[in-house]
């Protein structure tokens, strides 16, 4: 646990709040995997919001892990599919709304992952000529 807090406190190009939100999203995703009947409908919306903020901040490694974890939670959860197809108990509008929010949130996370891939490609291409000019002898 101490290593996690040191990673949060370390100064680098990622904001601390994005790191903290990514860690919270991952922990909530694990909790949803442990309790697929209720966790997906109650905890996953919070994890989706935290994971999306983490991805938009630029943390791709943790973001990929959160995205895969949340997507697998949705795929394997019977409560998600029941709420998505309105087979849940009558009066469960909140469960249906939560299921659709989770679905839209995971789609937003995939858009953020594609955005990061497209942003990084020009950065790598721009960095390559500078590195080649530094490597030339004087």
Counting copies of identical and different chains, the oligomeric state is single chain
Which stretches are poorly predicted, pLDDT < 50 over at least 5 residues?
A: none
| Structural class label | mainly alpha
Mean pLDDT: 76
Question: How many distinct domains?
Answer: 1
Largest sheet: none
Please provide the ordered H/E string of secondary-structure elements: HHHHHHH
Q: Count the strands?
A: 0
Q: How far from one another are the termini?
A: 49 Å
- Please tell me how large the radius of gyration is: 19 Å
Helix fraction bin: over 70%
Beta content: under 5%
Describe the overall structure.
The chain is mainly α and 138 residues long. It has one domain (1-126). 80% of the residues lie in helices and 0% in strands. The protein has helices at 2-9, 16-34, 39-42, 44-56, 60-76, 78-84, 93-135. Helix 2 (16-34) packs antiparallel against helix 4 (44-56), helix 2 (16-34) packs parallel to helix 5 and helix 6 crosses helix 7 (93-135). The longest helix is centred in the last third of the chain and has 43 residues, at 93-135. It is globular. The model has no long low-confidence stretch (mean pLDDT 76).
Key descriptive features of the protein:
globular; 138 residues; mainly alpha; membrane; single chain; 7 helices
Blueprint (SSEs and pairs):
Blueprint: H1 2-9, H2 16-34, H3 39-42, H4 44-56, H5 60-76, H6 78-84, H7 93-135
């Amino acid at each position: 646990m101490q290593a996690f807090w040191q990673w949060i406190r370390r100064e680098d190009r990622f904001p601390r709040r994005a790191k903290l939100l990514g860690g919270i999203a991952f922990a909530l995703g694990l909790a949803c995997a442990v309790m697929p009947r209720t966790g997906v409908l109650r905890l996953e919306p919070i994890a989706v919001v935290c994971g999306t903020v983490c991805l938009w901040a630029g943390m791709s490694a943790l973001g990929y892990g959160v995205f895969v974890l949340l997507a697998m939670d949705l795929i394997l959860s019977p409560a998600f599919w029941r709420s998505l197809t309105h087979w849940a108990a009558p009066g469960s509008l909140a469960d249906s709304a939560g299921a659709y929010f989770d679905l839209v949130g995971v789609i937003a996370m995939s858009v953020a992952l594609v955005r990061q891939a497209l942003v990084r490609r020009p950065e790598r291409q721009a960095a390559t000529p500078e590195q080649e000019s530094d490597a030339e002898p004087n």
